[in-house]
Amino acid sequence: MSNKDVHLEIRDSVAIVRLSRPAKRNALSDGLILALRNVFENLPDTVRAAVLDGEGEHFCAGLDLSELKERDAGQGLHHSRMWHAALECLQYGPVPVVAALHGAVVGGGLELASACHIRVADESTFYALPEGSRGIFVGGGGAVRIPRLIGAARMADMMLTGRVYNAQDGERIGFAQYLVPLGQAFDKAFELAQRVAQNAPLTNYALMHALPRIAEQPADQGFLTEALMAAIAQSAPEAKSRVKDFLEGRANKVKKD
């Protein structure tokens, strides 16, 4: 499933998916977006978690503007929806995805990162949404996902003024859940993915597919959805086995790191 734009490596139960356009700072072409969709739609059944990384000095510098074409409104609509479908294969795909962020996480690159479930940034990371200065608008799901991370007001500020967030401020406002020293984003992301891969698959599925939807539901609907998902998860044989191991002293107890 690897190609010139996206490289796939499997290490035990973790898939490493790497953007491979370093000469273009991993800028997003349609080919790269479709390759990502193909990879996540066809992960082997043995994979339990994934790491999304970028080759070279940058995670992703956004849309490859050399591919920007004149489109009428209908063509632009369908093009945006194609990106939506591809990134939904990450957000609502088969396994949790941990993004290893470094260097530029800009425009479409930030839209891509926001579709992942956990984001680890190193100290070189910076975030920006330059679409406003270029006379365009986000089209890869950023208008939905990014405000859920940092709020609509902060996103509007970034697009109106060209504001750039560094790694420290980006972690503070919610772009990343982890901030690590320079060059350590991938190692930390892989460590987290290995930990995630040890969870019961149905619990991971609930966290990916049910939790974000519960968060958007009115409280009474959310409580019902939560109850249904809890009942389904705890009925799985693996869940019963894990609870039994804990009760009989064969499972690790929670400790401070």
Could you explain the architecture of this structure?
The protein is of the alpha/beta class and about 260 residues long. The model has no long low-confidence stretch (mean pLDDT about 90). The radius of gyration is 19 Å and the shape is globular. A 6-stranded mixed beta sheet has the order 1-2-3-4-6-9, with helices on both faces. A 3-stranded mixed beta sheet has the order 5-7-8. Helix 1 packs parallel to helix 2 and helix 4 (about 140-150) packs across helix 5. About 45% of the residues lie in helices and about 15% in strands. The two termini are about 35 Å apart. The protein folds into 2 domains: about 5-195, Alpha-Beta Complex (2-enoyl-CoA Hydratase, Chain A, domain 1); about 200-245, Lyase 2-enoyl-coa Hydratase, Chain  A, domain 2 (Orthogonal Bundle), CATH 1.10.12.
Outline the fold blueprint:
Elements lengths: L5 E6 L2 E6 L10 H12 L7 E6 L18 H19 L5 E5 L2 E3 L1 H7 L3 E5 L3 E3 L13 H9 L1 H10 L3 E2 H7 L4 E3 L4 H13 L3 H16 L2 H17 L1 H11 L10
Task: Describe this structure in a few short sentences.
This protein is an alpha/beta fold and 257 residues long.
The CATH top-level class label of the largest domain: Alpha Beta
Helix/strand/pairing category: alpha/beta
Separation, N- and C-terminal Cα atoms: 37 Å
Largest sheet, if any?
Answer: 6 strands, mixed
* Radius of gyration using CA atoms only: 19 Å
- Following the backbone from N to C, one meets helices and strands in this order, namely EEHEHEEHEEHHEHEHHHH
Strand content: 15-25%
Query: Residue-averaged pLDDT, rounded?
Result: 92
The CATH architecture assignment of the largest domain turns out to be Alpha-Beta Complex
Our count of domains comes out at 2
